[in-house]
Amino acid sequence: MTALDEDFTPRADAAREAAAPADTSLRPTWGRSARRRPAFSVGFIAACAILCLLVAVAITAPWLAPYGYNDQDYTSILAGSSSDHWFGTDSFGRDVLSRLMYGTRVSLGSAAVAVTVALVLGVPTGLLAGYIGGRVDGFLMRIIDTLLAFPTIVLAIGVTAMLGVGMTNAMIAVGIVLSPSIARVMRAQTLVVRGRLYIDSAHTFGGGNLWIIVRHVLPNAVQPVIVMAAHMVGVALLVEASLSFLGLGTPPPNPSWGGMLREASRFLDGLAIQIVAPGAAIALTLLAINVVGDWLRDALDPRGRVKRVG
Amino acid sequence: MHVATLSSAPPSAKVLRAVLRRLGSMVLTLISATVVVFLLIQLVPGDPAVIIAGDDAPPERVAAIREELGLNRPMVIQYLDWVSHVARGDLGESVITGESVAGAIARTFPRTLHVAVAGLTLAVLLGVPLGIAAALRANSLTDGGIRLLSTIGLAVPNLWLGLIFVSVFALQLSWLPATGFVPITDGFWTSIKYLVLPAATIGLSAMAAITRQTRSAMMEVLDADFIRTLNAMGLRRRLVIWQHALRNASIPVVTIIGLDINRAIGGTVVIESVFGINGLGSLVVDATHQRDFPMVQGVILVVVVFIVLTNLLVDLLYVCLDPRISLS
To answer: How far apart are CA B212 and CA B218, in angstroms?
Structure first.
């Protein structure tokens, strides 16, 4: 690592303070590893294990699930836990465990798609706003701040109302709703990176704006966005579950955790496994995503960790 | 370090200018919010009039709806016309029932607000003391327990929490009514009985965020030089904590409470269907199912205006709490 742009004036120090993570290298590259990695705590390992398990279940659901997600057993309707149906059956006599397993697919899949949509919309917007600056920045930030004023679920309902109810539309709606947060972080990071010496030197070498953005700004500004995207999978999962619970997301008979809660809540008059199981699945997944997201943030931003511990 | 409690805030021209700048920024946000809500209808794939009328509606009916919604005019004219009506409190009519959108919102919004405010109050009353307790006994068993509680609180979806509350406390134990709503003006205790479960649902998840923020803000302040100085001066610990530390820690906490207003409204919109409350949430969900575009736009606009205004109040509250902040 060269230290050509090391500058020890107080102003440069302040600029370095503002930059997260602090970066003094001349030739930035993709995939830079964190310098100080927080310890692998028990919670983190458990969270990773839960996430791996969920992904495995999502992929292998057709082989793993004891029944099809739509197989009906009319002899057991809303039955409790038994050896045939570990998590009981729903109001159509469908196996809750099997639907939960298939639901992992729907819930994780749609959260992943929604976050991808948010990244596709948010990253270029943030890059443009931060890199171009001036009026373009002012205009884009005004829109972004306005969108952030809406409660996530309310805006998601609004977008769903316009696009039409359905699984794909719900994913797009959640993605649209989450994109301003991504754009905001991306812009802030772009502003920091744009002021670095290596960007100036890239200009001096005759690099075009597009090349500089893609080759130099994006790789150096993207880390906090990745952390945010990790957390956002959880938000997307929750919003999708809420939409499905309200009957605006995944339509029946497709299994989604939110939809299962909706169906269970309509037919049950007490606490039962049919309500506990899908909600616990959502909560456990959110918990695991939050723990991993926090760890990622600490790993990629040493300053954040110090602050948290202090 | 400047001790906020020792200084008084003279209502100087600087503060006034800052408040005016904040008001100007709020007006711009409100204007762009109307643009966003107006443009929402552009997301409709195809012709909104055809969707409202149904696929096999006669062309005259489609044309009538298009005329009624002004969809056949240039977009800028449509916007200006719409926004001038909005400014006069006219949000249009439901395309399904013909009811005035403003009337429907006026009927339902107080219910949503009841639940959200009750939940938020509960969250502040529980979250702030818990956060302080955790900060004062940092890294102890108490602290660990409180942190675990708030981590779980952040992960438990409030619609699930609501379902569990209803099944346990209303359906199984019959302690409280399961669904329904009674306004606080129709008898305080009856109203509270209906409010407890929804408010607890909203409150517990909001509480988690407030606890976390109070804990970290409090710990940061307790670590500051001026607190050490006050301790060294021999001030009573209670005085140091409640008068000096808490006031300085309150700013980030107020920020979180401001954000929680947003979350509480969003959360209430979802859990209304759990508790059978015919509030704004039920209104917008029904309107979404029926593709009642003016109703959806009206609800979203009212929600965002409400949130922008409460955020303004929160920002102004900062100035009272901390004269160092210049509302930049």
So the answer is: 10
Contacts of A287 in chain B (CB under 8 A): 151-152, 155
A34 against B221, higher pLDDT: B221
Q: State the CATH number of the domain containing residue B290.
A: 1.10.3720.10
Distance from CA of A62 to the nearest CA of B (A): 27
Instruction: Look up residue A26 and give its DSSP letter.
Output: S
| B77 located within any domain | no
Tens digits of per-residue pLDDT, A26-49? 444 444 444 456 677 788 888 999
Flag whether B45 is in a domain: no
* Closest chain A CA to residue B312: A149
The answer to whether position B204 is within a domain reads yes
Interval B279-318: pLDDT, tens: 899 999 999 988 888 899 999 999 999 999 988 888 887 7
State the Cα torsion A293-A298-A299-A303 to the nearest 10°.
Answer: 150
Element holding A298 (H helix, E strand): helix A273-300
Both tokens of A61, joined, read 């659901």
Q: What residues in B contact A282, CB-CB < 8 Å?
A: 157, 160
Neighbour tally for B321: CB within 10 Å: 16
Number of domains in chain B: 1
Q: Which of B44, B156, B167 sits opposite A162 (nearest CB)?
A: B44
Q: Where are the alpha helices (DSSP H) in chain B?
A: 13-39, 48-53, 59-69, 75-87, 101-136, 141-155, 158-165, 188-222, 225-232, 237-239, 246-275, 280-289, 293-321
For residue A237, the chain B residue with the least C-alpha distance is B157
Measured on CA atoms in the order A308, B2, B8, B10, is the torsion positive or negative?
Answer: negative
Q: b/e for B11-48, b at 16 or more Cβ within 10 A?
A: eeeebeebbeebeeeeeebbebbbebbbebbebbeeeb
Position B120 in a domain: yes
The boundaries of the domain holding residue B239 are: 101-321
Give the model's pLDDT for residue B186: 78
Other CB atoms within 10 Å distance of the CB of residue A71? 14
Find residue A95's DSSP bridge partners.
A89
Confidence at residue B11, expressed as pLDDT on a 0 to 100 scale? 56
